[in-house]
Design brief:
The protein has 470 residues and is α/β, with parallel strands linked by helices. The strands form four sheets. The chain has a seven-stranded mixed β-sheet with strand order 6-5-14-15-16-13-17. It has a six-stranded mixed β-sheet with strand order 8-2-1-12-19-18. Strands 3-7-4 form a three-stranded antiparallel β-sheet. Bound molecules: flavin-adenine dinucleotide.
């Protein structure tokens, strides 16, 4: 490696690559464990100038993320920059609206709110996390530094400085939180028996902003995630605390309804007139934004293991990049942080990284695979089923079951979003529930009798039997 400027060796020199949502949170948690941490981020400081992203402007934060933020002592600060979203509001092609609450009735939520998810700006959250980590004098951020190589044998990193110089840095523990195209993970793919797969969804997305009205107020219901389900594609709108909505069209690239056929803003205008006529007057500058904003792709990755010996660990999208349809990418990355931290808590001192990292992979890899599967399924549910009366009936029956049998029937959405149940257990429970619900929906006169005791008892009996035989 070229010019060597080694960071002075201290006991346990922790290096984090990537100061995104997961890396900056993890740096904070390491500092809280009394570690010295250097964070290297290829982008400029997000607190200076506009954030260059190319990814979603805002994100839905839910219980798994909150749990990690709580552990790091910054949940209250994040709550101050987030907006509660109580349910999804479906917009049918004829303009009819159906609201579906996310949380269960009477279930206690967080922060004194009803059970809900929270919209937060990616840029504001990232800035807050960097600030919180940097408030510790043991944490140092190095922006504009891109990791270009890892020497696993000698525990050295190669970085490109803002002046385009190559520098090397020694580490004791290296945390790859450098996102879906992780350089740290890339190095691990060249170690023995490291599995890696990457796949792109055949659908992409484009975001456009809906500005507030002349008085600065939201133009649509502000406590809802709006969905226009249209079969193979959908439009979504998530409100931001500043009165805007971030609207995202998810669609296949190819085909008559595809993004490839919408290159020209006039084609986009005709598409919106045809498919989302109620939205069009609310985004008067649609064509201007369409011409400027990029179409982005959706990548999924899986790898194994998520660590290398006792010195390298992958977290967040670097370990598990998933599609965004369950709103769990960041949440699961933050859960990586709380789980790893809890594993360290459970160790007698000094921290035993060998055992901890092995336990981390064992706990998190099945969870990462499961949330990818769940997120893929939820895309079909959101774009295809949320407008389907049978699906809405199923949701009503499930809410009734959850109320009648608290703790025994927890809808899949609640398990994923409002619980800490490992994702793989939620996935397995959801598959059983799906089979039972298919039988229930096939019962005669279910439309009239959906909230009868007979239906509830049949469902819970079937659940108990499936658990006995599971
Ligand atoms: C359209 C869309 C909507 C989404 N909505 C949600 C949602 O509602 N809820 C949710 O929970 N999740 C959502 N996600 C997922 C979420 O964005 C990611 O899971 C999350 O950003 C992962 O955080 P991370 O820190 O692991 O990675 P990133 O946010 O990608 O951060 C990685 C950081 O590493 C840096 N980096 C990369 N390479 C290098 C290198 N070689 N050297 C140094 N630094 C490097 C990058 O610049 C970046 O700052 C969404 C994703 C998309 C695409």
């Amino acid at each position: 490696m070229a010019e060597a400027s080694r960071v002075a060796q201290r006991p346990e020199h922790m290096v984090v690559i990537g100061a995104g949502l997961v890396g900056s949170l993890w740096a904070l948690m390491l500092a809280q464990r009394d570690h010295h941490v250097d964070v290297y981020e290829r982008r400029p400081d997000p607190r200076i100038g506009p954030v260059k992203g190319g990814r979603s402007i805002n994100l839905a934060l839910s219980d798994r993320g909150w749990r990690a933020l709580e552990k790091a002592g910054i949940a209250k600060a994040v709550r101050n920059i987030s907006l509660p979203i109580e349910g999804r509001l479906m917009h049918a092609p004829d303009g009819a609206l159906t609201f579906q609450r996310y949380g269960l009735p009477d279930a206690p939520g967080l922060h004194g709110d009803p059970q809900c998810i929270y919209s937060v700006s990616r840029a504001n959250l990232n800035r807050l996390l960097v600030e919180a980590a940097e408030a510790h004098d043991r944490v140092q951020f190095h922006f504009g530094h891109k990791c270009t190589g890892v020497d696993l044998a000698h525990k050295n990193l190669e970085l490109q400085s803002p002046e385009k110089k190559v520098i090397t840095v020694a580490y004791d523990r290296l945390f790859g939180t450098d996102g879906a195209f992780s350089a740290v993970r890339d190095r691990l793919t060249r170690t023995d028996r490291f599995d890696f797969e990457q796949r792109y969804l055949e659908h992409g997305y484009k975001e456009v902003a809906m500005q507030p009205d002349a008085l600065g107020a939201f133009k649509m219901q502000k406590d809802a995630l709006h969905i226009w389900p249209r079969g193979e594609f959908m439009l979504m709108a998530l409100p931001n605390p500043d009165g805007t909505f971030t609207c995202t069209l998810f669609a296949p690239y190819a085909g008559a309804n595809g993004l490839d056929a919408l290159q020209d803003p006039s084609q986009a205008l005709a598409y919106f007139e045809r498919n989302f006529p109620d939205v069009l007057p609310l985004i008067p500058d649609l064509t201007t934004q369409w011409a400027t904003n990029p179409v982005s792709s959706l990548v999924m990755t899986r790898c194994f293991p998520w660590h290398h010996s006792d010195s390298v660990c992958l977290m967040g999208d670097a370990a598990h990049a998933i599609v965004p349809f369950y709103g769990q990418g960041m949440n699961s990355g933050m859960e990586d942080c709380s789980v790893l931290s809890e594993l360290l808590d459970a160790m007698e001192s000094p921290e035993d990284w060998d055992r901890t990292l092995a336990s981390y992979t064992a706990a998190r890899k099945p969870a990462g695979d499961a949330i990818l599967e769940l997120a893929l399924r939820n895309y079909v549910e959101m774009r295809d089923k949320t407008g389907d009366p049978q699906f809405l009936l199923q949701k009503r029956i499930e809410a009734k079951l959850a109320k009648t049998y608290p703790g025994r029937w927890l809808p899949l959405y609640s398990q994923v979003t409002f619980s800490q149940t490992p994702y793989q257990e939620a996935l397995a429970a959801g598959q059983i529930q799906d089979r039972i619900m298919a039988d229930i929906l096939a019962m005669p006169n279910i439309q009239e009798n959906w909230d009868s005791e007979e239906v509830a008892e049949t469902a819970i009996r079937a659940l108990e039997q499936s658990q006995v035989f599971a």
